[in-house]
Amino acid sequence: MNRLPIEILRYILREATLVQGGSSYPDEVDELEQEKEALRRINDSMSIKCAISLVSPCWHTLGDEFLFEIIHISQQRVVRPLVGVLRRHDENAAPRGRWCRHLIINLRHYEIEWTHGQATLWGLVPSCPRLEDLRCFLYLSIHPLGPPHQSTRTLFPAPAVLLQTIASVQASRLRSLHFGEWVEISLDHATNLLSHLEDLELCQFDRLVDPSSFPREDFSSWYDHTKFNDDQYPLNEVEVQEYEQAISVARWPASGRPVNLPNLRIFKACTFFPDFGKWHVPSLRDVTFGLSHDYEWESESLAIMQRALIPHSSHITRLTCGSGVPALWNILAMLPHLEQLQFQLHDMETAGTPSESHVCLQSIVFRSQSHWFEGDLSVALTNIQDHILSLPKLKTITIEGNSRVAKQERLAERQPMFAELGVFLTVAYNVDLSW
């Protein structure tokens, strides 16, 4: 076997260690099951990769490329030893971290250290200079010995130095970027970061904040840099050195650059902002957003959405709305090429009359969190039924909720009515309605 050409051995190793769905990021930002299954296969594949690396010295050398290409971290205690391995040089005098393409940090623990290590994600970002996919999920769970009903909402603010490090190290290759719900990012810093990631195809910020739009005290958890007391946290000398070095050189590679993302297809953020309309995103198809501020008048939220979305209306085909969005027919009027629309029922006005026909919409998804919104659902379904001629391509209406919603609304009685109109009405149970 060892006499085979290196190219043949590498091909064998590639086929033996290939993880279906693991060498790419999720195609849809809301397909949670798709991502969970891929992560399970990634974890299962590690035993195969480790076994192959022990076959022979030749296989061990070739195996580094596949052993480190996908790294999924679920325990913080393994980070520092892993960083040491990634920085160790192989037989070619090159660090092993160069093989890493997908870095997934998924920490769920009652104690997560977010001090000096935050500047570089504990050294992981500079140790993996050729990343294509970076995902960071931090969730502070309840201590097993704590009060049984204790709750926590601890945030992990991302300092400017972390985003500047990502922009400096990963700008030429990163295609997918996702910061989870408890990693808080300033809109200004996020915009600066994205202006340097021109190859990005998927971007998801689950907690994006705009301090300039609100009183400073509303975002007291957000900051640029923090000085840590030596007696408050156990010090890791390597992390302290990395932190001080990162702080000393922290700057954006170039300032004042416009956001130019020619390959961006999917963008998700928990809040929206008018300057999104100034971005150059010709490939954008899928947008998810909410409005974090409760506007007194619908005209205010409508104006923000118009400035943000109308410049991209010729190519957006899928929209998922969070809280604070304007009326259904107003959204359809500003996005004439929309094919799929999904929103939380209690957050959108579904009455009213369409100003014109929408000839592209094929699917509507209502998310109803409880039976208390049964009146809203009834109004929405009746309104769509009354104006079905304005939606000639509509094929499916899906209601995501629980069995009580379906029972209260007597959806079984409505299904034949919509079927006669060529629309399939269905209910999906037990979905994640947290966002």
Automatic annotation (TrEMBL):
Domain of life: Eukaryota
Protein name (record): F-box domain-containing protein
